[in-house]
């Protein structure tokens, strides 16, 4: 049996942060830098590293997906299927991007920089998915009036440091109270949808992040749960209901186990 304080106060196993700190930073990163792709369902998000490998290994080379890092708080990584030097298929995981990285160069531009990425899982050409979100100039022509040659920032990865994985080599469970298999959580459940009943969702723009249920708040310590029986979406809804008297918080109805509707201004 696990109490709310175990999620909100106690660090996760082999980590120096709590589940809610990890979850909060993932939501914050999404709201500030990934709003468009998230709303379109292009970010799988809350899927474990092991599950992402299982999905990608059946796909054509160059297929990739975006998921929140298991071990890097407030980071999102790109996992993709490629071949190693021997021609063997491997799943590669790029070093996670943080909010600071996206302040320098956006997600769409970074994906465009990597010719190894072709298809967003399951079958969307990357240009179809991300070209609309590109806001930075990617090509300059001519020279400036003062005679300087223009330059630009482009992302590359160090092939010398790359090591593909056929099996998960870090904690395979994306930090969440939901048993061994992690559900897919994005507006359209882009991979392996596990819910179709009208459960509730939280609109990130309905309240400030500091007012999210469980963020810096105490849950009813008498409310305990069996760890493997918890569904994250239902858990969030139940947590939110405990703060239903707070006028700044509300839980919308009829959600597919997702966090969506991030359309209104912050």
State the secondary-structure class.
alpha+beta
Q: Supply Rg.
A: 20 Å
Biggest sheet, open or closed, and with what strands and sense? 5 strands, mixed
**At CATH's second level, what is the architecture?**
2-Layer Sandwich
Domain SH2: 38-117
GO molecular function: DNA-binding transcription factor activity
Keywords: SH2 domain
GO biological process, one term: signal transduction
Provide the fold topology:
Blueprint: E1 2-3, H1 4-8, H2 19-33, H3 35-39, H4 49-56, E2 63-68, E3 76-83, E4 89-93, H5 99-104, H6 107-113, E5 119-120, E6 124-125, H7 126-130, E7 199-201, E8 224-225, H8 232-241, E9 252-255
Parallel strand pairs: 2-5
Antiparallel strand pairs: 1-8, 2-3, 3-4, 5-6, 7-9
Report on the structure:
The protein has 266 residues and is α+β, with helices and mostly antiparallel strands. The protein has one domain: SH2 domain (SHC Adaptor Protein, 2-Layer Sandwich). Helices cover 23% and strands 13% of the residues. The chain is built from 8 helices and 9 strands. Strands 4-3-2-5-6 form a 5-stranded mixed β-sheet. Strands 1-8 form a two-stranded antiparallel ribbon. The chain has a two-stranded antiparallel ribbon with strand order 7-9. It is globular and about 60 Å long. Mean pLDDT is 65; it is low at 163-233 and 235-266.
